[in-house]
């Protein structure tokens, strides 16, 4: 099982009894504030296989049923890297350089205006002399 909260994902309970088979991904973002055991324990279980954490807490049958409502996808256990985490870090890198490009495009007029004003002022100053 992978618990996902915002950009963080955690692994937990396999869909069946053998841990090696596949993992379910759960988006628990909306449940963090409501969790009777507090949001900190759920967040601490993110980014890893959270199966044991969930099982060791001795959750009731209704808690397990509730968990099912947060399913978002099934992952093959052979994938060691959580795809969403890879994607989000790539996105951040792209966004950063993209933002820099946008700022450069947006604000190129400011240095140009300063140079232009300086030239005009300098020209007027020289003409006065
Ligand atoms: C999305 C996943 C989770 C769901 C839906 C969930 C749901 C619940 C629910 C409904 C309860 C109330 C008692 C019960 O019915 O069993 C509970 C209690 C508790 N949960 Fe979770 N839980 C989740 C994840 C976790 C994780 C990862 C931990 C980590 C250790 C955890 C630790 C606890 C603890 C310690 C309690 C007992 C709180 C108390 O009695 O004071 N839970 N949880």
Task: Map the helices and strands.
Blueprint: E1 2-5, E2 8-11, E3 22-27, H1 39-44, H2 51-56, H3 61-68, E4 71-76, H4 83-107, H5 109-128
Protoporphyrin IX containing FE (HEM) is lined by residues 3, 26, 28, 31, 35-37, 41-42, 45, 50, 53-54, 57, 59-60, 62-63, 66-67, 70.
Structure description:
By secondary structure, this protein is α+β, with helices and mostly antiparallel strands. It has two domains: 2-80, Roll (Flavocytochrome B2, Chain A, domain 1), CATH 3.10.120.10; 86-128. 50% of the residues lie in helices and 16% in strands. It is built from five helices and four strands; from the N terminus they run βββαααβαα. It has a four-stranded mixed beta sheet with strand order 2-1-3-4, with no helix packed on it. The protein is rod-shaped and about 90 Å long. Mean pLDDT is 77; it is low at 14-20 and 86-91. The structure holds protoporphyrin IX containing FE. Protoporphyrin IX containing FE is lined by residues 3, 26, 28, 31, 35-37, 41-42, 45, 50, 53-54, 57, 59-60, 62-63, 66-67, 70. Protoporphyrin IX containing FE (HEM) binds next to α1, α2 and α3.
């Amino acid at each position: 099982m992978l618990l996902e909260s915002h950009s963080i994902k955690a692994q937990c309970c396999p869909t069946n009894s053998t841990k090696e088979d596949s993992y379910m991904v759960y988006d628990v973002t909306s449940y963090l504030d409501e969790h009777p055991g507090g949001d900190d324990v759920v967040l601490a279980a993110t980014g890893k296989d959270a199966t044991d954490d969930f099982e060791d807490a001795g959750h009731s049958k209704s808690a397990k049923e509730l968990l099912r409502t947060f399913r978002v996808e099934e992952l093959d256990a052979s994938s060691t890297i959580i795809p969403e985490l890879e994607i989000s870090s790539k996105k951040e890198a792209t966004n950063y350089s993209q933002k820099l490009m946008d700022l450069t495009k947006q604000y190129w007029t400011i240095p140009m205006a300063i140079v232009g004003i300086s030239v005009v002022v300098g020209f007027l100053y020289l003409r006065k002399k």
